[in-house]
Amino acid sequence: MKEEILSVGIDIGTSTTQLVFSNITIENMASSFSVPRISIVGKEIIYRSDIYFTPILRGKEIDMEKILEIVQKEYIKAGVKKEEISTGAVIITGETARKENANIVLHNLSGFAGDFVVATAGPDLESIISAKGAGADVYSKENNNTVVNIDVGGGTSNIAVFTRGELIDTGCLDIGGRLIKIDVTSKKITYIAPKIKELAEINNININVGDSYSETAVQKIIDEMVKLLEISVGVTKENDFYQRILTKKGIDLNTHINCISFSGGVADYIYKGLEEKDVFKYGDIGILLGRAIKKSLLLSKLTLVNSTETIRATVVGAGSHTTDISGSTITYTEDNFPLKNLPILKLSIEEEKDTSLIADKIIEKLNWFKIEGELQRVAVAINGKKNPSFIEVEEIAQSLLKGMNELIEKDLPLTVIVENDMAKVLGQTLHRYLNYKKNIVCIDGVRVENGDYIDIGKPLVGGQVVPVVIKTLVFN
């Protein structure tokens, strides 16, 4: 039996704000004699909003009233009422996620859907979201290769690398189309980001706020920005300024990459080579940056892959709900359910091969879930072993606790999700190592991926299983 639900996605980015409404078809894919498994079998975007410049007050706060006005206006234009929405997602990304009132805006917007996936995406998570929106993960899996996606936005360029469909690395650079702003009428420079000003000075490029547009100076600084993007994916060797331009970290430059894709507002000028009479029609250097990337070594050294979305890659079509039941061998030390909207930190099979490295991988990936250095709640997911020995369970438990030490110190919930059937013994072992003083939730029989969120409901069938809702960010 199929069912259709209406979903909405709202993306508030550094440069732009936009909405997408979709019809999502869900179906029970299990047989009549099996536990239900609800899956997405179809998705159709029925309305794309206009694209708005994200309204900011005094450079420090999101203009919440303007955002609400935009959202309400687009609901009316789409002919959709709030109560008709079954699911959806609000994502605040890039520089906007660092604004003082970002969480307040999220709270106010959450009323526009029945059950939002609400997340403030830091640079690592934004890299994953935009790359999946561009279809880089799917292309990598289908073609058995390694793809890097660069989402070139207004304030940052977010990088994600997928090998055979598995996310292996992320990075972010402070390079974007609105880091130099130019008045549309006077053609005078009105803003230069501090790092870009440093880059200009190091390269003896004379460019200052208040100057009239100089094609030579602006093109020179754009070329330097593109060189840094080339370095970021290993096309050219690292220079002295590269570490300075990183938002937080770059990708492993020893990774062998076959293909490249682009998303973000600048991407259309890379793929389509759009001609514009006024290259400063948006009041920034985005168009010129896109043209420069199109002529760069990024395209001559790597195979260009078409993106399924460009400027709309980070718009989340929906927080699609896939209801499932955990395995019957689970551990929970206290009935403090339901647990809502836990983001997933998933280790790959390769990362689990050497048990001694599990801790390091978790510590590294926990950085994906930090906003301004503050760690958010997170559920750690592993594949686990099908028939683990007692020693293997002990080793995995010790590595997990070492990796999750920051969660323990901050008194955040300890939630472990295992795909294979070993959650009861693993959970009991974790609890024992913590001297039975820390609450643990450890469930199995559930498959999740990075970028997912999970809800865990109150135990059923005498506490033997728990209902889970896996919220997969759906992209076009």
Quaternary class: single chain
How much is the average pLDDT? 81
Number of helices: 15
What fraction strand? Answer: 25-35%
Taken together, the total number of domains comes to 3
Largest sheet: 8 strands, mixed
Helix amount, in percent?
25-40%
Organism: Clostridium gasigenes
InterPro entries: ATPase_NBD (IPR043129), EutA (IPR009377), FtsA/MreB (IPR050696)
Protein name: Ethanolamine utilization protein EutA
Could you describe the 3D structure shown?
This protein has 476 residues and is of the alpha/beta class. It has 3 domains: 2-121, Nucleotidyltransferase, domain 5, CATH 3.30.420; 125-304, Nucleotidyltransferase, domain 5; 326-474, no CATH class. 28% of the residues lie in helices and 29% in strands. The chain is built from 15 helices and 25 strands. An 8-stranded mixed sheet has the order 16-25-24-18-21-22-23-17. Strands 1, 2, 3, 4, 7 and 8 form a 6-stranded mixed sheet that branches. The model is unreliable at 113-120 and 315-326 (pLDDT under 50). It comes from Clostridium gasigenes. This is Ethanolamine utilization protein EutA. InterPro entries: ATPase_NBD (IPR043129), EutA (IPR009377), FtsA/MreB (IPR050696).
Attribute tags:
476 residues, alpha/beta, Nucleotidyltransferase, domain 5, six-stranded mixed beta sheet, 15 helices, 28% helix, globular, Ethanolamine utilization protein EutA, FtsA/MreB, ATPase_NBD
